[in-house]
Target: Active regulator of SIRT1
Amino acid sequence: MSASLLRRGLKLLEPPGRAKAPAGIQRGRAGPRAAGAARRRKRAPEPGRNKVKDRVVKSAIEEYHKKKPVNHLRENLKYMLKGRLVADKAVPEQVLAQNRGRKSKDQPPEKREKKQPESTVFTEEDFRKFEREYFGIP
Model:
């Protein structure tokens, strides 16, 4: 932070009744050079300009107030409670499908049908009957 910005910030925070000390006493200089330096200091082109880059110096307090977060809760609640439209179940599914990536790791696992244990059409009695007929065992 530059010295000029620091001075401006301190000037904003100092109480209004406090007076400044004279320039000569404040700096602790005496002699012919002190007067020339004071004249050079007074010749700033404009109070809101920086001498070096000719940029407007921004106040930190003003920037803070500009960037201060605003609470939009009430407006958002009014907007949300205004309409009671419920979307179909297909719409959110479609949105989710569009936002998913194309890689296999981004895809949800496919639902596989559960395999039922294989059962035979024949019963135990049918097998015994077949044995008797084919092998001749009583």
The chain has one domain: 3-135. The two ends are 108 Å apart (CA to CA). The chain is about 50% helix and 0% strand.
